Amino acid sequence: MKQYLRQLPPIHELQKEERFERILANFAITKGQLTKFLQQEMGDLRQRILNNHIPNGFFNDGIEVVIFQHVEKRVEQWTLDRLTRVINGTGTVLHTNLGRSRLSEKAVRHVADVARNYSNLEYQVEAGKRGSRHDIIEDLLKEVTGAEAAMVVNNNAAAVFLVLSALAKEREVIVSRGQLVEIGGSFRVSSIMEESGAHLVEVGTTNKTHLFDYEKAVSEETAMIMKVHTSNFMTVGFTESVATEDLVALKNDRDVVFYEDLGSGSLFDFTAHGIGDEPAVKEVIGSGVDVISFSGDKLLGGPQAGIIAGKKDIVQKLKKHQLARVLRVDKMTFAALEQTLKSYVSEDSVTDELPTVRDVTRAAEDIRRQAEFFSDELQAQTSSYQVDIQESTSQVGGGTMPGVHLPTYIAAIHHAFLSAHELAAKLRAHTPVIVTRIQDERVCVDFRTIAEKEMKELIEGFSTISQRN
Which InterPro entries does the record cross-reference, listed alphabetically (predicted)? Predict the structure, then answer.
């Protein structure tokens, strides 16, 4: 191996190559960055040679050619956007791995406008003095939730942490054992409660909790009764839980705070469309709960955020807590959330303007027509594919509406030469990235989550792969 190692050129010689200058010009990186990539490639090359893995082209093309080919690939990969657009062909509307909710066009425009300019984030324009970011959209939040006051933090986990820290630190919080949930990323209610300084008091059993369980647990050390909406799983069979109205009556009798973590949080009545049984935020607030929290980027259809709403004195206390600054959101989140909430204020426009609500409530026949158009167009362009339109089901996703299966239609696609896994991999390597699901050795595209404006790119993606194979 030593004879091969001796053939490796020094870095300073490679820097004199015309190819070095060409890469600098093509990718607009600094000489120092390119030198670093060269050093990394040379280190990897030495290791491959020592492991008796001689690179292809080492003898025929010349070692300098091989080195710069590999370096250019490294640079190209480095300069690609880390966060990039994806066409979601899985049918899962709130796909956590793919960014959950898509924002409305109004929200996107408002975010761009606020991002490229100065804004009144903490400035009272009329008074000409410092303001509070908590005031920006509180009126909209109060309107859509029916609460006396509201505020925004960076996600619902942060909202839970703030509520427990501010209202129950070093005191007891009563929670049903059946509601000690774990969500994505190993976030557990019990763990966040421990971090907040509140003391967990478990009542009932996994499948059954009665009102008398709460009644017996309330003591002088009790600060709060907490109800956690089990939005990411279902317990079926021999089960029982206590209604929000009964816990409101108990908290009024015992003078403790009642907090309900709604998780997903819905401002739209999906039940009117026969979809799930998600409690409406306004109804929960109207039942007399002291404070609630829910996500902004799930069923709400907005940006990542945690929304806290409830009694004015409680929300004011939360706003003044030191954690409120730690957990606050930026101007772009406020901009996106503002336009999302305005769609709810104008109720007639919700299904037209908010992609999340539109996609969850889409009619199966509308999806079928879209799938058939895809099939006709693709097979008119290439004979490499066999496309079958099939009935199937979609998921809402994002830990939301467990057990809800939305009727849909999929295109089940077979390629003449590629396996399902090979085709799916090539689609993921395409620009834009196309993410699908595999079922019965077919690549499946669920059109519930494919926007009309994405159809041309989707068809071109499949067609391009066919031409290359």
Answer: PyrdxlP-dep_Trfase, PyrdxlP-dep_Trfase_major, SelA-like, SelA_trans
pLDDT of residue 469: 67
371's CB contacts (< 8 A; 6+ apart) are 389, 409, 410, 411, 445, 447
Q: In this structure, are residues 247 and 269 in contact, taking their beta carbons and an 8 Å threshold?
A: no
What pLDDT digit, counting tens, does each position of 173-221 carry?
999 998 887 766 566 778 888 899 999 999 998 789 999 999 999 999 9
Instruction: Give the C-alpha distances (Å, rounded to integers) separating 40 from 5, 33, 67, 71.
Output: 15, 11, 11, 9
Residue ranges matching CATH 3.90.1150.180 in the chain? 86-95+360-468
Q: Could you tell me how far CA 134 lies from the centroid of its own chain?
A: 24
DSSP string, 68-135: HHHHHHHHHHHHS-SS--EEE-S--TB-GGGTSPPPPHHHHHHHHHHHHS---TTEETTTTEE--GGG
Under 8 Å between Cβ of 93 and 449: yes
Contacts of 295 (CB under 8 A, 6+ apart): 155, 156, 263, 264, 265, 304, 305, 306, 307
Q: Which helix (H) or strand (E) holds 466?
A: helix 455-468
Q: Three-state DSSP class for 319?
A: helix
302, β-bridge pairs: none
User: How many angstroms separate the Cα of 235 from the Cα of each of 181, 187, 229, 258?
Assistant: 12, 19, 12, 23
Task: Tell me the pTM.
Answer: 0.90
Provide the Cα torsion 25, 27, 32, 33; round to 10°.
-170
Residue 350: CB atoms within 10 Å: 21
Start-end of CATH 3.40.640.10 domains in the chain: 139-322
Q: How far apart are CA 359 and CA 362, in angstroms?
A: 5
DSSP string of 350-375, one letter each residue = HHHH-HHHHHHH--HHHHHHHHHHHH
Residues 6+ apart with CB under 8 A from 152: 134, 137, 141, 296, 305, 306, 307, 308, 328, 329, 333, 334, 337
pLDDT in tens, 26-78: 998 999 999 999 999 999 988 988 888 776 666 566 788 889 999 999 999 99
- In CATH terms, the fold of domain 139-322 is Aspartate Aminotransferase; domain 2 (3.40.640)
Which amino acid is residue 150, in one-letter code? A
pLDDT-derived band at 429 (thresholds 50, 70, 90) equals: very high
Q: Does domain 86-95+360-468 have CATH number 3.30.565.10?
A: no
